[in-house]
Design goal:
Elements (H helix, E strand, L loop, with lengths): L2 E6 L4 H10 L5 E7 L2 H10 L6 E4 L7 H8 L3 E4 L10 H9 L2 E4 L4 H6 L4 H7 L2 E4 L3 H13 L3 E12 L8 H8 L5 E6 L2 E6 L5 E5 L2 E7 L3 H9 L5 E6 L4 H15 L10 H8 L10 E11 L4 E10 L6 H15 L7 E4 L6 H7 L5 E7 L3
Helix pairs in contact: 1-12, 3-4, 7-9, 7-12, 8-11
């Protein structure tokens, strides 16, 4: 029988891409859910005919549990961010109605905190997964895939930079702005130190050229020091293709740091609209790099750079892919894990890249010299 999937936030930037990849697949019975019926109707029209059900669902509503139970899901994919200010009511509602749960959260505390539901999820025989996105799902799959080349891994530094013409949603913008200029814990030189969101800016090499990136607060900063014992430094940065937007965001981060702005995230819709004044500039090419340094199996220094580039506006497919991979594995009976956990170790890098076949996505691996 087809797996009954409720996709919350289906009309969003990432939800709509997940919907397009699950709709019409006989392994799934898809229900598109969200707060606004108009957006869901438009999405169903865009999908071009697959029979999908629509459901108006607000994750902040008091009746969430009952409304979700009425849909009788076997898997809920939660793509309605930002997650930084959310609690675990959707995951708890899934436990109550006997459904598996996957979200696209990139909030550091939210993803790490999912483990508090682990005992309840195991007792119920359900899988609750947080962070099925670029970080920590894909980033950890890259590190896991390269780890066997190292006798000792010392440094993990990774970064992303979307193309300027890549679609952006208010939730994504709000998530970034929420930590700009604010203090965050970073694992550096074998101990916890303080950094500042969007600061520690540097030029980062990508397959398509160098771009400016700044420090970001993501689950990897919390999870990787424990996942990869012995690693001495973990850093994650992100940036915008256009210097005017990247350094404009940096200026706003300084205003937060100086106490002149309190809540930058609440300006996300307005700032997102301002950024779209410049859509004609830049490109639709974005990507991700993961740089690892340590000792190889012979004891020599080893530095690797794994790179991914996405063109033709396919960048948003990257954070959408982990949820698609997990849904397919659950439908095929290939995912036996149960409990509540961050999205790490649940699929391989090869599985993720296979799910991106057909999109304008390429990868490469380089050995760097000192």
């Amino acid at each position: 029988m087809a797996l009954r999937v409720v996709l919350i936030g289906a009309a969003g930037v990432f939800g709509s891409r997940i919907a397009a990849r699950l709709a019409g697949d006989p392994r799934f019975q898809l229900i598109l859910a969200g707060r606004r019926q108009a957006g869901l109707l438009a999405l169903r029209e865009d999908l071009g005919g697959p029979a999908v059900q629509l459901a108006t669902l607000d994750v902040t509503a008091d009746r969430l549990g009952g409304a979700l139970a009425e849909l009788q899901p076997q898997l809920v994919i939660h793509a309605a961010g930002p997650f930084q200010a959310q609690d675990y009511r959707v995951a708890e509602a899934c436990l109550a109605c006997g459904s598996h749960y996957v979200d696209l959260a990139d909030g550091r505390d939210f993803v790490a905190g999912m483990r508090h539901l682990d005992a309840r999820a195991k007792a119920a025989g359900r899988l609750l997964v947080s962070g099925a996105s670029t970080v920590p799902a894909l980033s950890s799959a890259v590190v896991d895939g390269l780890l066997t080349r190292f006798a000792a891994l010392d440094i993990i530094e990774h970064a992303i930079s979307p193309g300027n013409r890549t679609p952006r949603g208010d939730a994504t913008v709000a998530a970034i702005l929420g930590y700009c200029g604010r203090p965050l814990r970073v694992w550096r030189d074998g101990r916890w130190q303080q950094g500042r969101g969007w600061m520690s800016t540097r030029r980062q090499a990508f397959p398509f050229g160098r771009r400016w990136v700044g420090l970001c607060d993501v689950p990897d900063l919390e999870l990787f020091p424990a996942r990869y014992p012995g690693v001495r430094t973990v850093a994650f940065r992100a940036g915008l293709e256009l210097k005017r937007l990247h350094f404009g965001t940096l200026a706003a981060a300084w205003l937060v740091r100086l106490g002149l702005l309190r809540d930058l995230a609440r300006h996300a819709p307005r700032l997102r609209r301002i950024s779209e004044w410049f859509l004609a500039a830049g490109s639709d090419v974005g990507g991700m790099v993961v740089e690892l340094a340590g000792r190889d199996l012979q004891g020599g220094l080893l530095r690797l750079r794994w790179s991914l580039s996405a063109a033709q506006g396919d960048g948003p497919q990257i954070p959408a892919t982990p949820a698609v991979v997990l849904a397919r594995k659950l439908a095929d009976g290939e995912l036996s894990a149960r409990g509540a956990m961050p999205c790490m170790g649940l699929f391989t890098l090869d599985e993720a890249l296979a799910a991106l076949d057909g999109f304008a996505v390429g990868t490469q691996l380089d050995t760097l010299t000192a």
